[in-house]
């Protein structure tokens, strides 16, 4: 039996602690916050989309960075096993659109309680307000940890699960990356991911609060398409957000470090140019004495007609019967290709996850053990692995945590 210290009481840390203790090891979990699972409480707007009920092969298609690294972890503990685990701890589960899994209660706290219950039954010792500052390593072997107050805890194995740097208010402040870097373990550059976009055009701010459903969004780096998908987006006081934008951000956050990108929104994806023109001609024929403003209000929600008038320099009082072919073409092209310039992403305070982290080349994928330091296991958002929205990132945390705890002998 090993004495194991788990550093970090988030999703991956709690799962790792439970699994190591379940296998008979003496486990001490150290968490610097006043409570466990602080980031879990804010996921899914407090409802906690804790996994996705897709099969494992579909899961990999939603992983953005280093999906092959996750094969062992996800096959060891897949979404179905996670749902079974939660229900086994007395938390009923429901699956919603996009196979997103939530606790039936819609309370994120129930997921944390399930993990706490499992740890308690496995005899995990938990210490809160316990901040680890460094690792004790000698001859490429872990020996323990050093606390911020100078105290030391010795052990046989350490599982590091301190998270990334997104939502720093939850305690994710890069502690693990600093500790590992000081031990010579490579950490790739960190970027905010699943994060809103800041836009250049001032007229976008007029649309603040407007949500668009069933639109197609493309992201261009020059002429290259970096992202192309269908769904929902939201205009904010500084730019754009919503599920489509958050997913797009994970594909382009590194590009935005050095240059701007262009977003193209097809506001009428169900209609081809020809069908849309037929619709507009019909509106003109049926309402020739109505104004341009009438037509745009029929085609667009909220304050979008106002933005269109400014972009197209249309006279909103002009009769539809006076609309020229050129004006009609401009309107159709803008409806099918509403362009937005993106200057940057929001920062880590707005980001749901961190992209980048401990290089996967530093970690044995079948065990989550460091290749340089024996007895040191690394899991969760610390790793250079990330995925799209829909419960995939929390499942990665649970799966890598489970495999780390399971691998200790």
Summarize the structure in words.
The protein has 409 residues and is α+β, with helices and mostly antiparallel strands. It has 2 domains: 3-191 and 355-407, FAD/NAD(P)-binding domain (3-Layer(bba) Sandwich); 196-346, no CATH class. It has helices at 11-22, 56-60, 71-76, 79-88, 109-121, 175-182, 243-252, 273-286, 292-299, 304-312, 325-336, 392-407, and strands at 3-7, 26-30, 51-52, 63-65, 93-96, 100-103, 125-127, 132-138, 141-147, 152-154, 157-160, 191-193, 197-199, 211-221, 224-235, 239-241, 261-266, 338-345, 353-355, 363-364, 369-370, 376-378, 386-387. The strands form 7 sheets. A 6-stranded antiparallel β-barrel has the order 13-16-15-14-17-18. Strands 7-2-1-11-22 form a 5-stranded parallel sheet, with helices on one face. Strands 3-6-5 form a 3-stranded antiparallel sheet. Helix 1 (11-22) packs parallel to helix 12 and helix 9 (292-299) crosses helix 10 (304-312). It is elongated and about 85 Å long. The mean pLDDT is 96.
């Amino acid at each position: 039996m090993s004495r194991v210290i788990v550093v970090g009481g988030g999703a991956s840390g709690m799962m790792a602690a439970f699994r190591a203790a379940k296998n008979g090891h003496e486990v001490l979990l150290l968490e610097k916050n006043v409570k466990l699972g602080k980031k879990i409480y804010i996921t899914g707007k407090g409802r906690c989309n804790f996994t996705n009920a897709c099969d494992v092969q579909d899961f990999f298609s939603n992983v953005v960075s280093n999906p092959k690294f996750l094969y062992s972890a996800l096959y060891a503990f897949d979404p179905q096993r996670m749902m079974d685990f939660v229900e086994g701890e007395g938390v009923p589960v429901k699956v919603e659109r996009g196979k997103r899994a939530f606790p039936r209660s819609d309370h994120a706290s129930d997921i944390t309680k399930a993990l706490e219950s499992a740890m308690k039954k496995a005899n995990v010792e938990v210490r809160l307000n316990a901040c680890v500052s460094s690792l004790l390593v000698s001859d490429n072997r872990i020996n323990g940890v050093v606390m911020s107050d100078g105290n030391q805890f010795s052990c046989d194995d350490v599982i590091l699960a301190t998270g990334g740097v997104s939502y720093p208010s939850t305690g994710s402040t890069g502690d693990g990356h600093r500790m590992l870097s000081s031990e010579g373990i490579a950490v790739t550059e960190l970027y905010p991911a699943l994060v809103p976009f800041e836009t250049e055009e001032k007229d976008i701010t007029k649309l603040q609060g407007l949500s668009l459903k069933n639109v197609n969004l493309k992201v261009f780096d020059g002429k290259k398409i970096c992202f192309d998908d269908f769904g929902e987006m939201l205009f904010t006081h500084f730019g754009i957000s919503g599920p489509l934008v958050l997913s797009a951000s994970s594909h382009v956050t590194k590009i935005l470090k050095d240059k701007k990108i262009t977003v193209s929104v097809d506001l009428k994806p169900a209609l081809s140019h020809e069908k849309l023109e037929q619709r507009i001609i019909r509106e003109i024929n049926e309402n020739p004495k109505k104004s341009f403003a009438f037509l745009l209000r029929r085609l667009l929600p909220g304050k979008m007609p106002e933005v269109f008038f400014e972009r197209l320099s249309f006279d909103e009082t002009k009769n539809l019967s006076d609309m020229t072919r050129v004006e009609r073409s401009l309107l159709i092209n803008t409806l099918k290709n509403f362009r937005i310039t993106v200057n940057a992403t929001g920062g880590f305070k707005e980001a749901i996850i961190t992209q980048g982290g401990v290089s996967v080349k530093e970690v044995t994928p079948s065990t989550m053990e460091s290749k340089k330091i024996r007895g040191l296991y690394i899991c969760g958002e610390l790793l250079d692995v990330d995925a799209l929205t829909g419960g995939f990132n929390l499942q990665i945390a649970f799966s890598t945590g489970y495999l780390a705890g399971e691998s200790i002998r």
